[in-house]
Specification:
about 110 residues; 1 helix; about 40% strand; 7-stranded mixed sheet; alpha+beta
Length: about 110
Amino acid sequence: MSDFENLNGNEQDLDGADMEEVLGSVTLTLEDDSEVECLILAVYQAGGKDYIALLPVGEDGEPDDNSDVLIYRYIDNGEEEPEIENIEDDEEYEAAADAFDELLDEQDFEDEEE
């Protein structure tokens, strides 16, 4: 598991992401030093930048029905642990959130075809 420090969440509704597609998990350390375990739902591109979508989980390791997806900028720095950053710009966040929604829509469409 990776620890990412000094992060606070930008939130996006999950809208039915398929939990079979989870890529692992990370532990976020928030600004108040609390820790949140999150499942990695996707690493994807939007507008030439990479982003990561995370879903917080409860102590039992299962997503809470009230959980929102957290979206961060993802930076693969070539080291063992990549970095993630808050998205400060509203337009950039909207573009990243829209791209994640499109990713979910594509997944739903592929699931319907099977």
